[in-house]
Amino acid sequence: MSPESASRVVAAVRATTTLPLMVKLSPNVTDVVSIASAVVSAGADAVCLINTLRGMAIDIETRTSRLGTLSGGLSGPAIKPVALHMVHAVAHAIDAPVVGCGGIATAQDAIEFIMAGATAVQVGTATFTDARSMLDIIDGIVAFMEQHGLTSLGELRGMV
User: Fold this and answer.
1) Do 80 and 52 contact (CB within 8 A), yes or no?
2) Are strands 64-65 and 72-74 parallel, antiparallel or unpaired?
3) 153 by DSSP, 3-state: which?
4) How large is the greatest C-alpha to C-alpha distance in the chain, in angstroms?
5) What is the pLDDT of residues 94-112, one digit of tens each?
6) Is pLDDT above 90 for 158?
7) Phi and psi for 120 in degrees, rounded to 5?
């Protein structure tokens, strides 16, 4: 939640391993860019963002939380605009790979994240309803690239 604590955790982990270290960042912070900068400075090789947003759902008939606990995480397509914004901000501020996630369900979604600056994408919620979603996303990216005469994702990365 703070650049200082994130930096301390990453430095401690980095001191114990030479393996690649990717840090997944929460969107539930005031300034994700400063946290991303701090973890890269402390030794992270890459960052992944975002995770779920805090959310809540209430059953008005039973007057209880629909989540089993009072609150939980909101994920899927609803968080995509927030995720794109944060990926764009971080990708243009740090010198390390950024993995974008949050609401990616189609090739178009993945391409938007790459255009925002993501080096790679992560698909989560879409796989719960369609086990083939990742294959369809890959096929769609390939088709888009062929249609536009592109030979590398690097030609799309950070265009926005």
Assistant:
1) no
2) unpaired
3) helix
4) 56
5) 999 999 999 999 999 999 9
6) no
7) -150, 170
Amino acid at 119: T
Is residue 146 pLDDT above 90, yes or no?
A: yes
pLDDT per residue as tens digits for the range 21-67: 999 999 999 999 999 999 999 999 999 999 889 888 899 999 988 88
Q: Would you say 96 and 120 are in contact if contact means Cβ atoms under 8 Å apart? A: no
Express each pLDDT in 123-134 by its tens digit. Answer: 988 888 999 999
Residues in the chain: 160
| Nearest residue to 27 (alpha-carbon basis) of 75, 92, 60 | 75
Q: Domain limits at 102?
A: 3-155
Does a structural domain hold residue 109? Answer: yes
Note whether 115 and 157 are within 8 A (CB).
yes
Q: Taking the model in full, what pTM does it have?
A: 0.91
- At residue 28, the 3 state secondary structure works out as coil
Alpha carbon distance 160, 156 (integer Å):
9
* Closest of 52, 43, 50, 51 to residue 96, by C-alpha: 43
Q: Answer whether residue 44 is part of any domain.
A: yes
Q: CATH number of the domain at 42, please.
A: 3.20.20.70
* SS3 label, residue 140: helix
Amino acid at 97: P
